[in-house]
Amino acid sequence: MSSSNIPDTQTDKQLKKKKKKRKPRSRKPSEVQAVVFGKNWTAERARKWLDKRGWKAIKRVHKTSGGFLRYRLKDPDQFKRFIWKSTPQGVNFVLGFHT
Fold first, then answer.
1. DSSP secondary-structure letter at 25?
2. 49: how many CB neighbours lie within 10 A of its CB?
3. 65 lies in some domain
């Protein structure tokens, strides 16, 4: 039996519907809003870490009451919600979500 004799289970229209492309997002779903360095980091070491990765703080370092160093990369008013991600090296990321 040739392939042309095999009945189609789906029409071409049905296949095209399944492969419908999503609209590209105009903004990223999340971005790093701030980087917070642990108590064992100095301001100089933290600044070098940021510079090495091409990140620039929008304000001066904020020393928190807990002894952490916070560098804001984006204005928090741009985001609707936030989460905190920690690393074993004492570098913490505040991720902001637009939705």
1. P
2. 16
3. yes
DSSP string, 37-70: E-TT--HHHHHHHHHHTT---SS--EE-TTS-EE
Q: Could you report the per-residue pLDDT of 51-81, keeping only the tens digit for each?
A: 999 999 999 999 999 999 999 999 999 999 9
What pLDDT score does 28 carry?
74
What SS3 state is found at 92? strand
Query: What is the domain range of residue 89?
Result: 27-97
Q: How many domains does one find in the chain? A: 1
Q: How far apart are CA 69 and CA 51, in angstroms?
A: 15
Residue 9 lies in a domain: no
Give a yes or no: residue 67 inside a domain: yes
Question: Are 97 and 79 in contact, with CB atoms under 8 Å apart?
Answer: yes
Residue 12 is assigned to a structural domain of this protein: no
